[in-house]
Amino acid sequence: xxQRRMKIGVAVAAAAALVLSACGGGAQxxxxxxxxxxxxxxxxxxxxxxxxxxxxxxxxxxxxxxNPDREIKTDWFANDAYKEKVRTAIGSGNAPTLIFGWGGxxxxxxxxxxxxxxITDGTADVVSKLIPSIAEGGIIDDxxxxxxxxxxQPVLFFYNQELFEEVDLSVPTTWDELLEAVDxxxxxxxxxxxxxxxxxxxxxMWLEYLVERIGGPEVFKSIExxxxxxxxxxxxxxxxxxxxxxxxxxxxxxxFGSVSADANADVALVHTGKAAMLLQGSWAYGTFLTDAPDFxxxxxxxxxxxxxxxxxxxxxxxxxxxxxxxxxxxxADSEDAQADATEYLNTLFDDxxxxxxxxxxxxxxxxxxEELIExxxxxxxxxLGYDLVQNSPSFQLSWDQALPADTAQTLLDNIQRVFxxxxxPEQFADEMNATIK
Length: 437
Known about the structure:
Blueprint: E1 3-5, H1 12-16, E2 43-47, H2 50-66, E3 73-77, H3 79-92, E4 98-101, H4 104-112, H5 124-129, H6 132-135, E5 139-140, E6 143-144, E7 147-148, E8 153-160, H7 161-166, H8 175-187, E9 191-194, H9 201-215, H10 218-224, H11 234-248, H12 265-271, E10 275-281, H13 284-291, H14 293-297, E11 301-304, E12 319-322, E13 326-329, H15 335-346, H16 351-359, H17 370-373, H18 379-391, E14 395-397, H19 399-402, H20 405-419, H21 425-433
Parallel strand pairs: 2-3, 9-10, 12-14
Antiparallel strand pairs: 1-11, 4-13, 5-6, 7-13, 8-10, 8-11, 8-12
Helix pairs in contact: 9-11, 9-20, 11-21, 20-21
């Protein structure tokens, strides 16, 4: 199913206050306190804030109760503080046993530098529970280096159902229908699509899907493989042109460059009726629930997959986004601590762990989660997202996570120039080809 109108009870708003936020999203609470030097046994550093903190803490507490002689000591940090601290700790060989990460190029760098260990043999049970496309996010060269620890995060289309009814339109399922909707909403004086252009990575999601729909997953695989002139693929050029066509058509209004995703301003434009559509990660669902519970409860929030592109080479079922976040095991700790941490990971995703995800509105990364989703407060949204993830032949990791950090920053800067119409498709390709090593 590619679209479904949301009609969800107001009772979920309380749970939504704890819902998973985007990996680059809004402010999070301060850490509980400074960490202390690791003693004997395994240790873990986690992030504060949201449903995830509660899920992780509950999981560690259950492990420690069941394994009092092998307790895992935990310390908790706000997002930005953690990123700085873990980089220093890994570089100095003082990392915790369990390292929290976002996958992608950073995970590969750690694996290739022998900073984390191959846990393939010790995690077969938990990997067998995972949707294969999600498990792949923690696999480097056929070896497991990371185990997902949160819900999966595909990028989805959110829309204001009331505005669509007002102009007598159905949510677009093809690119041509999307262009027609843009014209219709502009004629009605409604911004067609909310876009937080000040955040850059929000622009990127449009190119990710367009390249996928037009050229298929092989196009970005060539880019990741550093193939010469990979950014000059016709699918990339066509995708940039299509994105700029949207800008020229007024799809995002006149002020999208000043809208920030960090402040959830793009979500607000939709639930306040100022914009009709929004392309965002699944984490935006929690923001709608928290910021506009009545809007959701009244059935005004719609969610759908990205439109198909006629004659495109990509499978319409393919998705982009973040497979998950991951735990990895540090190579710097003792063999006993590594063994305990690996065994802990192999016990993840029991019913209690997955149920906590469902209760918080996160899309489970495990097979067979239908029974837990059915009857939940978030059933409609979770079913749609879960089905998309399960049925997708390809789940492309967000480009800024898949590429090395320096390349990712260059990419974000140039994508922003694409949306401000400051560079042509060919100039964009030239700028990005220069990053290929």
